[in-house]
Design goal:
Blueprint lengths: L7 H16 L10 H6 L8 E6 L6 H4 L7 E6 L6 H13 L4 E7 L3 H12 L7 H17 L5 H19 L1 H8 L4 E7 L6 E7 L9
Helix pairs in contact: 5-6, 6-7, 7-8
Length: 211
């Protein structure tokens, strides 16, 4: 019989502990050996879904010091949502049973910077980059309405809005959070020192700040 998934709060604590190890250069590289790889062949049981920005500096298993089978990772530039993203997250929670969803943004985000520039200057990037900017723009406008115009201020607003949007658009996720079986947490990653900071959450997790 497979072990039951951890509680949302316990899963969140596991991520935070891994990030602390990463920050303090005390990594354990768990679940990366050949035996564990073989044990996962019949199926997976990740303890968290991580929906993050595609930025190359946000490699999830590295910054949270985890290994194979631990995280179900979904990434897009600027962590923008769409049907494919929502379906992937619902698969991680509804089918694989993950009790935690992380929305991971970071400071100096290029997608947020581009959207801010578009709003301020009225210019837009070409091709499908425009679609990314258009999906981040509501966060830029919401931040500006609240008197926040700096990139990192907008990043926090975008993370919070994305966290809220997941529950607004996914009935499955909203029901799991309401039942206490899952939590959705927004985190902001700091590029210079590798720490994560909680921006907001829905569901049963203790409030945490930093590493």
């Amino acid at each position: 019989m497979p072990e039951p998934p951890p509680s949302p709060a316990a899963a969140f604590q596991m991520l935070l502990e891994g990030n602390r190890r990463f920050v303090h250069n005390d990594v354990q590289h768990p679940n990366q050996d050949a035996d564990h790889r073989a044990s996962l062949a019949p199926g997976q049981r990740p303890f968290a879904v991580l929906f993050g920005c595609s930025d190359s500096r946000l490699a999830a298993e590295i910054i949270f010091d985890r290994g194979l089978g631990d995280l179900f990772v979904v990434r897009t530039a600027g962590q923008i949502t769409g049907p494919e993203v929502l379906g992937s997250i619902e698969y991680g929670v509804g089918v694989l049973g993950a009790p935690l969803v992380i929305v991971l943004g970071h400071d100096s985000c290029g997608a947020v910077t581009a959207a801010r520039q578009t709003v301020m200057e009225g210019s837009a990037p070409p091709g499908f980059l425009r679609d990314i900017v258009e999906r981040v723009t509501p966060s830029v406008l919401a931040a500006r309405a609240d008197g926040k115009t700096e990139v990192d201020e907008i990043v926090d607003v975008h993370i919070q809005r994305t966290t809220d949007l997941l529950l607004e658009r996914s009935t499955l996720l909203a029901k799991e959070v309401e039942a206490g079986r899952c939590a959705v947490v927004g985190l902001c990653y700091r590029l210079t020192d590798g720490t994560v900071r909680e921006v907001g959450h829905h569901g049963p997790v203790a409030h945490r700040t930093g590493s």
